[in-house]
Amino acid sequence: MGFNVGSSLLDPSLTVSVFALHSKLMDVRGFWHLGLGNVPTDTKMSQIEVSAMKSPLTPLATLIGRELRGEKVEKPYLKYGQAGLAKKGEDYFLIKTDCQRIHSDPSTSFSVFAIFDGHNGISAAIFTKENLLANVLSAIPQGTSRDEWLQALPRALVAGFVKTDIEFQQKGETSGTTVTFVVIDDWTVTVASVGDSRCILDTQGGVVSLLTVDHRLEENEEERERVTASGGEVGRLNIFGGNEVGPLRCWPGGLCLSRSIGDTDVGEYIVPIPHVKQVKLSNAGGRLIIASDGIWDALSSDMAAKSCRGLPAELAAKLVVKEALRSRGLKDDTTCVVVDIIPSGHTVLPPPPIKKPNMLASLIFGKKNQNSMNKTNKLSAIGVVEELFEEGSAMLDERLGKDSPLNANSGIFRCAVCQVDQPQVEGLSVNSAPFFSPASKPWEGPFLCAKCQNKKDAMEGKRLTRPTVVL
């Protein structure tokens, strides 16, 4: 079983608990019993360290109160763990905690965690792992502020997924991969996904939220309708005698997913356009569990979250895998990444409070929850989670917006997907109208080059030919 352990400070100025730092040097109780004057010179601590030892950890209620009052608080830090067991060897993961929005500026750091569950080979999973992040970042304008960067990220994720798919299909290989791609910037978590890997959020209130959507034809009626409208056929596997078995699949190819990267031999109606969700956690923090379907075929989201609460992230990932194997056995590649987003001043993620039944409290808070349904921000009872963005449409023009071209006066346009500058004779806008709009008509962008426009048409069933597969 593969097992990696790590942690990342998102702000180098943050310090962890002095108790943890000095636990190997001396017994804390003995230290206070001796008094500062009795501490040997080589083990004396600075006044700052002593003050930190005397200061108790900030209570959870205080952190939440600060968030609600809009007070500035320190960045969280991350601890993470990964575990997995291979059946076919087609699962891959990415952990990158040293990303920076601005090169050589640690204050702009962010982290990426991802799982790629390959099928029909490993090429698509490896290619996506190596290229997706760069393709996403290339779609975000340079020199933007943090807020602008976060606002641009959902669209950039769509462009990056589609660009990666186009580039891989040009290799002429037939493998495919699911993708669950998580970007963590301070308290903001953005998740983009295609396929049936999954990411869940376990908040400090004990509320488990699903941050992805499963793109399985068996369970997603909207995706079935989209595939058939685009020219695909959906049905079960026919065996001798006319009996149908197994989950719903799209034909040709027999893939049970409606979205993925790769799968050149199946059809362009299997799209790489991800579902994207962006949330902001409160200063109470939270735990993310990112895993391939080898986990979710065995465990529900609640079961996975409850199975590892109170454990460090590295042990939690191992336990989730163990629980899935105990429940179902090793029938598929089984990979799990656990990420704890921990408030400053805590060494581990505080466990959720134990809830005691209280009829009066439930009546009071029930009314509050009912009244809060009309608000834009959705808040859990204890850990406040603000939903910033969510979109899952498979229509590329709906996901890329209607920005103006790079420089309309010069006749040079930048493709919204591949980020390549093109002269005006090379492409069309997304509505297939000429990129020159009449003076009375506003720009109906974004601009797509000829290659990306062909990709868009194929995904929507306007071009039914498939790329030639190199044997």
UniProtKB/TrEMBL annotation:
Keywords: Hydrolase, Magnesium, Manganese, Metal-binding, Protein phosphatase. InterPro entries: PP2C, PPM-type-like_dom_sf, PPM-type_phosphatase-like_dom. SMART domains: PP2C_SIG (SM00331), PP2Cc (SM00332). It catalyses: O-phospho-L-threonyl-[protein] + H2O = L-threonyl-[protein] + phosphate; O-phospho-L-seryl-[protein] + H2O = L-seryl-[protein] + phosphate. Its cofactor is Mg(2+); Mn(2+). Signal peptide: none annotated. Its EC number is 3.1.3.16. The keyword S-adenosyl-L-methionine does not apply. This is protein-serine/threonine phosphatase.
